[in-house]
Design goal:
Blueprint (H helix, E strand, L loop, with lengths): L1 E5 L5 E7 L2 E2 L6 H8 L7 E2 L10 E2 L2 E2 L28 E6 L2 E7 L4 H6 L4 E9 L3 E10 L5 E3 L2 E2 L2 E3 L6 E3 L2 E7 L5 E7 L7 E2 L5 E8 L4 E5 L4 E8 L3 E6 L5 E7 L5 H4 L4 E3 L5 E10 L1
Antiparallel strand pairs: 1-2, 2-3, 4-12, 5-6, 7-8, 8-9, 9-10, 10-24, 11-23, 13-22, 14-17, 14-19, 15-16, 15-18, 18-21, 19-20, 20-24, 21-22
């Protein structure tokens, strides 16, 4: 396994190869990510994952004109947080199988104006012959609790003709036409969504997961799994029509949690929050 990370572009994982094969959908690549925030590879969605239902949360106004605020073209809503292609990451440790970086919100007034909770984000990635592990620590550095509502967006390459998926989910949040939870849910029987991907499409928020949350896609050569090791409560699954990828997105809170407050956690000063997932390849 070989992983490539770009600290100067938001600490995005821009390539992940197993036995020489690229596992990630690279879409528009680094150039589109830098210019438009068009996601690819494995980006971090921080401090909120996916969409917000409006331009204000907890008394904070998001500035439409800010280059840090990314807008969903389909709905006109803020999407995917403030750190897309951010140049603010500082690499703190490197090695052949390990990379550590951090970003201090207090050091960047433009970030703090849009997410006014002093804290430091620490990202640690490690790789071995068949696994990539990703861990995020959120450490408050001020006197106020920090809301926890981030996630990742791994684009896993697959061939729809022979791909089979496993989704360890128990409940789907019903969404309105903007992709925002309505508060209603559908229960899902264990294994009901497993099987061939084929022509099926997904853009779904699952806010109740199985005890062992391992999402996977299998083709004729290998299985790629996303293991929700700790800290994640929600999964967004994304596979639009015609796509040659599927995304199993680990999320610490439901879509729009910063505004709705639904299942939104906070980390208090003097404490820290950690979340970890692993991408595992089985031949």
């Amino acid at each position: 396994m070989e992983a490539t990370y770009l600290p100067e572009l938001g600490m995005v994982c821009s390539s992940l190869r197993h036995e020489g094969d690229e596992l990630l959908a690279l879409r528009g690549g680094p150039e589109a990510y830098a210019k438009r925030g068009s996601t690819f590879g494995i980006p971090l969605l921080y401090p909120y994952a996916n969409r917000l239902s409006g331009w204000e949360y907890d008394g904070v106004h998001l500035d439409h004109a800010s280059p840090l605020v990314h807008v969903d073209g389909g709905t006109g809503l803020p999407i995917h947080g403030l750190l897309a292609a951010s140049p603010y990451w500082d690499v703190t440790d490197t090695g052949p199988e390990r990379l550590c970086a951090e970003l201090d919100f207090v050091a960047h007034s433009d970030l703090l104006a849009l997410f006014p909770f002093p804290h430091r984000v620490e990202l640690t990635v490690a790789v071995n012959v068949r696994m990539l592990t990703v861990r995020v620590n959120v450490v408050p550095t001020g006197e106020v609790p920090v809301p926890i509502s981030f996630g990742f967006h791994p684009y896993l390459r697959c061939n729809r003709d022979d791909a089979r998926i496993e989704l360890p989910v128990r409940r789907r949040a019903l969404l309105d036409q903007r992709g925002i939870p309505t508060g209603a849910h559908n229960a899902i029987e264990p294994g009901a969504l497993d099987g061939p991907l084929g022509i099926r499409t997904f853009d779904d928020c699952f806010d109740e997961l199985a005890a062992a949350s391992v999402f996977s896609v299998t083709d004729g050569r290998r299985t790629i799994s996303i293991e929700f090791v700790s800290g994640w409560r929600v999964a967004q699954v994304y596979a639009p029509e015609g796509s040659e990828f599927i995304c199993f997105e680990p999320m610490t809170a439901p879509v729009d949690a910063l505004r709705s407050g639904d299942d939104l956690r906070h980390v208090a000063p003097g404490d820290a929050f950690a979340a970890e997932f692993a991408l595992v390849v089985t031949s």
